[in-house]
Every structure is written in structure tokens, then in C-alpha cells.
Amino acid sequence: MNIEVCYTPQAYHLFHKQEAIVVVIDVFRATSAIVTAFYNGVSKMIPVATVEEAMEYQRNGYLAAAERNGEMIEGFELGNSPFGYMNNKVKGKTIAISTTNGTQAIEASRHASKILIGSFLNLDILCEYLTAQKKDVILVCAGWKNKFNLEDTIFAGAVVHKLINESGFQTTCDSAIASNHLYSLAKNDLYAFLSNSSHRNRLAKLDLERDIQYCLTPNQCPVIPVMAGKYLVKL
Amino acid sequence: MNIEVCYTPQAYHLFHKQEAIVVVIDVFRATSAIVTAFYNGVSKMIPVATVEEAMEYQRNGYLAAAERNGEMIEGFELGNSPFGYMNNKVKGKTIAISTTNGTQAIEASRHASKILIGSFLNLDILCEYLTAQKKDVILVCAGWKNKFNLEDTIFAGAVVHKLINESGFQTTCDSAIASNHLYSLAKNDLYAFLSNSSHRNRLAKLDLERDIQYCLTPNQCPVIPVMAGKYLVKL
Known about the structure:
The structure is a homodimer. By secondary structure, the first copy, chain A, is of the alpha/beta class. Chain A has a single domain (3-230), classed as Alpha-Beta Complex (putative 2-phosphosulfolactate phosphatase). The first copy, chain A, has 9 helices and 10 strands. In chain A, α4 (123-133) crosses α5 (150-167). The model of chain A has no long low-confidence stretch (mean pLDDT 95).
């Protein structure tokens, strides 16, 4: 089994293979929020590319979440802070969600046969599932507006590291090799390693240090969200 | 002064700033060959995107070079092996050149106010020049068919490392930070670090180990090629 890493949604078409499993990664914070939501009993989510679509769902009685540039959009009940999804209000609900990068990465990989949601919060259970499938894996980093970002790359490196060292996966993909190297430098203190990264600083300015700490703490939410038609559901 | 790294030609539009200096990087082997050519007395080069354009120049009496997928194209006198440019045949000549990735990166950044050619072969003189200009710098990696590659990233990291540590440049660009980290892992043995990389293996299959060793040996050709209209000339 082969593992590759795609650093930005706009490059996904260069990696697409019909039979491969895609894992979408947006550590700060869309995929961390989605994993948290399912762990806290959300029934379904509907990732949509535009704020307008999320608003349309809201008008039709759904809970809806929308974030751009790190901030919740006015008029919505939820953004992409994982802490917004840790309450009884969301239990059993279907939530439409649109975010700056994460939902764009889901949209870019929509022709994949299987799309999973990954974050440090579900790292181990995700790797166990991928190991059991015995299929090629493409890790799709959401990045920041189609630029490379460090936090998604380091999480991709954590998955590459596990699948190559523990599960017999192989790679000839330079971005997978680089992700693995960067994870090796980061793993002893993810928080410190990311101290200069662009999005951590963007979030710190928005007073979101608590979110950052939470998103970098592995295995707090052992669930795997998966796309089923237009919905995300719990695998 | 700010330094950023763009990993693939297709992402250049996300980085473009009118006043910034662009350095195009294709370590294996286009920019290494170009730097070697100027060091060996070539007068001008004309980078062109397509093989057909290179052929047209050849028909009109120019020397022409064309490479795709690591191999010289039949009917041309030169490919992108630096060793092809180390002889009296090229001295004083104008050479049209089209390669798989390097000339595409030049094409992508054509609206930049200044485009320089970088490789390990001209690392120090390039950094000295960039330091003296006191302008923002964008390092554009040619990559491999718009995918990230390791060797261009490591060279970008070498430049980032020098300009930040020795010349007061700053960065908030995650790909610049990552390049710097990867260079720190690679710098003691570039050749060994790249032993698993995709393009090194592609070239090794083509029996080009001598080219690889040469392209990874810093400061053999202290010249800086620069775009002037449609031509590359010596700065």
C-alpha cells in the first residue's frame, strides 16, 4: 500500500486515484471541530463550500456553522471552534458547515471513492482503520487558501510515520517523505514547534490558544467521520 | 525584508508581489545546467515553455536544448545535463532551452520585476546579491509537474537559512519555515538525505548519478543568471 501527501486542495487533481482512500486534514480547526462534533453525538454534518449554502440550510431549519479567516460569521450559531460542539445542543442534530479551508479540501476531493476526516484528535483510530483497509491512502491537507501550512503537514507526517513504520505502507512521494521528517522534528513538542507558524499566530491574535492546545492533543475523540453522499457521518 | 517559498509553479500567483525578487529553482537539473552554462561562457539563453518553440529556434540557427522526464529529446544538441554545457561549443552562444519543470517555473513567474536563477552551484553569490538588494524575496521551486519536490525545497531552505541568520530577513511563511527545517536535517549530507527522494531515483535509473553529485556541490559556478526580456543573461 502506498501513501501520498497532497499539500493543498488545488493540487488534489494531480494525486487523484479512484481506488485510494482520502483523508482530509485541517488541524486548525475544521477537521478537529468535525471530529469533536461526532464524538459529542452530532448525527450528520453537511460540508458546503460557500457561506450562502450554509445560510440556506440555516433558513431551512438546520443548525449551521460558518467560519472565514478564523472567525465565526455573524448570524451563525457555530464557527469552527471545537468547543462549540461540546454540548447537548448539537446531540443528534444535522449541521451544515462551511470553513475557509477544510470544506474546500473536501470539495476538491469529492470524486474520491472514500473520504475520511483526520485530526490529532482521532489519530490512532484513523491509522488503525487505514491499516485494516489495505488500500492506497492520499492525505489531503487543507492548508491556508491553497498555500502549504505546517500544522496539517505535521499531522500528515504523524500518519505517514505510523503507517510506514507500523503497518508496512510505502511511499515514493516527496511530500510524504518531507512530512515525516517535519513530524520527527515536531513530535516531542507540537505546540513549541508550531510557535512561529502562520496560522497559529493568526489564531493567537484571535485569542484562541485554548483551541490550539486542544487541537494538538492526540486521541481525545476516537471516532472517524466519513463522507456518505453529501453527508458526513460516523463510520 | 521578507522571504517566502512557493513549492510549485502553479501556486506562484498566490505569492506574486510586484516589487519582490523571484529566484527560480530546479536543482535536478535545469537551473543547475543554466548556471553551469553561464559559468562556461554562454552568452544568452532563451527559456521557452514548449519543445516546439525550442525546435523553432533550432531551425533558425540557434543552439537548442530540450528535456522531458529526465531525458534529452531526440533531434536536439543539448538536454539539461550540466555536463553538456562544459565545452567550447557553447561559448559565446545563445541557447534556447525547454525543460519539464524549470522553464515552466520561469514562465509562471514572468510578471515578477526581477527573476534570478538559483542552484547549489551559485548559492553564496546569490545570497550575497539578495542581501544587497534589500527587497522581499520569493523562492519559486520548479517541483515535479506541479508536485512538491525535496531537492528544490532543500535548496530553498539553504537560502532561507542564510538570509534569516546572516542577513536580517524575516518570514511568516510556513513553506519557508518548513524548508529551513528540512535543510537543517539535510545539510550535513545532502546526497544521503535525498537518497529516497522521487526525482533522485528517477535520475539514478537514467544513470545520472554523476549529475546528481555535481548539482549538490555548492558554489562551483559563482554567476547569477537573470531574465532580461525574453533572454537569460549574466547579471
